[in-house]
Amino acid sequence: MENKTRILIVDDEELICWSLKKSFEQNIGYSVNCAYTGDDALRNLVENKYDIIITDLKLPGVNGVELIGKIRRLIKDTPVIVISAYFSETIMNDMSEYDVYRCVSKPFEISDIISGVKEAMAGRVKGISDLGRQDI
C-alpha cells in the first residue's frame, strides 16, 4: 500500500479548508485533515503525523504565530506554509525564526499553494530566506 502525503490545514475559514482539501485529495491524492482553531490543530498534531502543515495566522484561541512556535517545539522538520492577509515585518521575522517554508498572501490561487506543497515535498527550497519573500 502506497503512503499518501498527509497535510494538516489550519484555517478558521471553512471554505478555504474545504477548497484546499478538495484540491489536494481529488486532484493529487493527498490525505488532508482540517482544523479550524489553533487548539484543534495542536490536538491533531499530537494524534497524527503530517508531512506538511498549512496554517493561517489569524485563528481563534492559539493564534498562528503561537501555533507555529508550538509546532516547532513538537516537530522541527515538517514544512510549514503560512497563508494570511496580515503580514508585517515583525511577523515575517517570526516566520523566519520558526523556519517557515513559505508565506502566501490571501487571497491566493490554489495552484500557488499546490506548487508550494509539491516543492516542499521535493525538498527543493530550504527556508523562507531562500525565497526572497517572493510571495508577500
Structure commentary:
There is one protein chain. The protein is of the alpha/beta class and about 140 residues long. The chain has one domain: Rossmann fold. Helix content is about 45%, strand content about 20%. The chain has helices at about 15-30, 40-45, 65-75, 90-95, 110-120, and strands at about 5-10, 30-35, 50-55, 80-85, 100-105. Strands 2-1-3-4-5 form a five-stranded parallel sheet, sandwiched between helices. Helix 1 links the parallel strand 1 (about 5-10) and strand 2. Helix 2 (about 40-45) runs parallel beside helix 3 (about 65-75). The longest helix has 15 residues, at about 15-30. The model is unreliable at about 125-135 (pLDDT under 50).
In the predicted model, the low-confidence regions spanning at least 5 consecutive residues are 124-136
Structural class: alpha/beta
Q: Output mean pLDDT.
A: 86
**Beta-sheet strand percentage?**
15-25%
